[in-house]
Amino acid sequence: MTAQEIKISRDYDNDVLHVLKNGIDSRVVTNTIISEYITIRFLLETREVVGFTIDEFSKVCPEWKDQKEYELMEDFDEILHVVNDNCKRKLAQAASGSF
């Protein structure tokens, strides 16, 4: 995945950042709230994390609040890679009984 494969939508009025992998139909995504401010978006069938929604973005991520869209795309592309790699590793460990 490259940063161009990430779609960033920022609602400045409500201070919400939406991140979603391009080509993903948001109607087939499962949302799981992991904190008061962060929702992870994933495909249930593949367990692939495909996005995030961050409420009160400038409060939760003050170091990113002034970044340009392309910078956020690069950062969230890397975050999605790390999260999905870790999930795959944990699922493989659980399947092999070496958890």
Number of domain modules: 1
Total of DSSP H or I helical runs spanning 4+ residues: 2
Envelope shape: elongated
Rounded to an integer in angstroms, the radius of gyration calculated over CA atoms is 14 Å
Mean of residue pLDDT values? 89
What is the secondary structure topology, with strand pairs?
Elements: E1 6-11, E2 16-21, E3 30-33, E4 38-43, E5 48-55, H1 57-60, H2 69-96
Antiparallel strand pairs: 1-2, 2-5, 3-4, 4-5
List keywords for this structure.
single chain; 99 residues; alpha+beta; five-stranded antiparallel β-sheet; 2 helices; 5 strands; elongated
Tell me briefly what this model is.
By secondary structure, this protein is an alpha+beta fold. It contains 2 helices and 5 strands. The chain has one domain.
Descriptive notes:
This protein is of the alpha+beta class and 99 residues long. The protein has one domain (3-96). 32% of the residues lie in helices and 30% in strands. It is built from 2 helices and 5 strands; from the N terminus they run E-E-E-E-E-H-H. The chain has helices at 57-60, 69-96, and strands at residues 6-11, 16-21, 30-33, 38-43, 48-55. Strands 1-2-5-4-3 form a 5-stranded antiparallel β-sheet. Strand 4 (38-43) and strand 5 (48-55) form a beta hairpin. The longest helix is centred in the last third of the chain and has 28 residues, at 69-96. 14% of the residues are buried. The mean pLDDT is 89.
